[in-house]
Fold these 2 entries.
Entry 1:
Amino acid sequence: MISFFHAVCYEPLYNGLIALISFLPGADIGIVVILFTILVKLILFPLSRKASVMQAKMKEIEPELSEIKKKYTDDTKTQAEKTMEVYRKHKVNPFSSIFVVLVQLPIIFSLYYVFLKSGLPGINENLIYAFTPRPTEIHMNFLGFIDVGAKSTILAAFAGITSFFQAMYAMPALSPRKENASFQDDLARGMHMQMKYVLPVIIFLISSSLAGVVALYWTTSNVFTIAQEFYIRKTKKQ
């Protein structure tokens, strides 16, 4: 399984990164990482868009589904039938978004792993294809003053901040807590708060302990995701 992951995802992405460095002589690795991350995200955009659209549809029909759960609490068979009717009426496949996300995960993890284990400015000859061009020089100072091969608190802070804004933009607004809130409601609220406030702090702490190139990838990925969500919502309204 690991060898398949390396051969199908990790090695092609690693070679793509090295090739892009070769095609952009003089560009620092930070600029290359940003361009490479955007390029991969654009390739994955059709899948990401499909998942986002399906999630938006699921949010739209959520009131109907909640009403069915309340009405048929003790009749699971009827509840399932009515739920499927709502899915068919709105042409929603609840499993398609999960499938789309699962397809993307190996590539996303590989992309993260490429920057985590790239070993830049060194090049791992064991991973390089024979036809991949080798760069003569790799500039590690992003914008001339941040060494992305070393730990960077500045880039880690950007990774944490952009993660917060991504969560804030992607997640729906939290409704006021009900007086007789159930355990499920409180659990959902707790998860919401953790995703919005705790996760960015964790990302900052992880990023600050790794090479700055990982934090730069994380930041670029977050900004792209925010822009992607904005574009999808805007086009959906038209």
Entry 2:
Amino acid sequence: MSENHLVTGPPRSGKTTTLELLVDRLPPSASVGGVVCPERRVAGERVGFELRALDTGETASLASVDREAGPSVGKYRVNVDAVDELGADAVLRGIDSDVVIIDEIAPMQCHGAVFLDAVRTALDATVPVVAAIATSGIGDMASISDRPAVTMHDLRAATAEAVAERLTDEIRGYR
């Protein structure tokens, strides 16, 4: 089992930025798997989130303000099928890469039981996992954060830049 890293902090603290900086700093030869969830904006207003597989670039809608079905998280409705299909598949394929990035493990993604199982499988694998994780709103967060070989990085105590630099050094050390 390798070391896993969970980046925490309040909304807009730099969790996603930290992961983006890490990916940018890895050597070009490093294979990166997993999933990211960028915002979708229309006329400057956030209207939803996408799921994007890092290895294939495949995308799907994670959540949207105009989605009519699915569980609600704030003003958004979650596309659980996309979380459990694209999200889980991208995380599981990432186990064969040099590092798995998961942005993020939060209330929207946690509606996907298959996705959460894939996250646990990745955390138990030999590949390092670096994930942004919400500090609240996750029913079973302890099953993810209270595991052996997990290092927590709280962005209230450090900057995204400093944490990304530390993570880059750690990930390079695994290779």
